[in-house]
Amino acid sequence: MTPLLRRSYVAAELIATHPPRLRDANKQVAFALACPPGARHTGTIDVTRWSALALPEAATLAATEVVASPGYFDYAGGSDGVWHVNFADPRLFVAYGSHLLAQDEIQVLEHPLLGSVREALVGEGDEPMTHDGEPTPFVVANVERRSAIATDVNARAGRPFGLYGNRFGIAPAQVIRDAITVLTPPTRSHLIAIAAPNSGRGPYTRKQVERVLVTALTGFAAAAAESHRLWPSAAVEIRTGFWGCGAFGGNRTVMTALQILAARLAGIARLTFYVFDDAGRSDFERAVAELDRVIAPTVAETVAALVARGHAWGVSDGT
């Protein structure tokens, strides 16, 4: 695989020349905590954009270890070869400075230099797109995670309904301060920015299923390629969740099964899936069983069998 674009940014220079543009007051509060005046930024951030892969003919599947993990993205453990899926908009990190706080915006809040990455790419004259007629995922390696934000429901902490989605922007500034833990020293994360389909009604079509599979396969394979370049001896792990199943109303069975299939087609050693809660674990297990039912000798047959199951789109959760 050869990327469409490759950029390397020295972190200290990047944030000095392309500081994040934060329109929302609470995002400014979060940034001030994570990146106070005089903060030291280290390392080099590698950014790549990749063209869509063609689906292979044969369903040659790796023995990927697939693990359900309770809760949400925690970034625990080592970082070499470990990639976290960013539930991206087609326009890379487009809403990071707004009042919104969905999964994409949470990752930028906790990794503030992702905002600088967007500003640097926009400064080159073109909108950085993760989907532009076809999937073109971005892969970002070695970005500092400088804070962690608690978005859960906690009435005592002033979060009676949590901070996710639109609730972040209307919360008092002090609640935001109390919800943020500054990481000293910062850790390092590696991200796969892929955009899920953002609308649908009725049963999934073959075209929709193929788009999801191509998007995930391209992003996962790109992360594997970058892993082999950066950490040749490290096993590749991808950490993900119910991508496209919140505001976009995606079907958890379909979106989970296709991510597992993509990981196995891409030869990923381990796929860790954050299931949130008991209901999420049940949905995950249902998707694993569904994939086992539809696996066929070819990818085309597998896709056709999954489409024939008639899984339907859900509804947006309003975030």
What does this structure look like?
This protein has 319 residues and is α/β, with parallel strands linked by helices. It has a single domain (5-308), classed as Leucine Aminopeptidase, subunit E, domain 1 (3-Layer(aba) Sandwich). The chain contains 10 helices and 8 strands. It has helices spanning 11-17, 25-34, 103-110, 113-123, 167-170, 173-179, 206-230, 252-265, 278-294, 299-308; strands at 5-10, 44-49, 65-70, 82-88, 138-149, 180-195, 237-240, 270-276. Strands 1-2-5-6-4-7-8-3 form an 8-stranded mixed sheet. The longest helix has 25 residues, at 206-230. 45% of the residues are buried. The mean pLDDT is 96.
What characteristics describe this protein?
single chain, alpha/beta, Leucine Aminopeptidase, subunit E, domain 1, eight-stranded mixed sheet
Give the SSE layout.
Blueprint: E1 5-10, H1 11-17, H2 25-34, E2 44-49, E3 65-70, E4 82-88, H3 103-110, H4 113-123, E5 138-149, H5 167-170, H6 173-179, E6 180-195, H7 206-230, E7 237-240, H8 252-265, E8 270-276, H9 278-294, H10 299-308
Summarize the structure.
The protein is built from 10 helices and 8 strands.
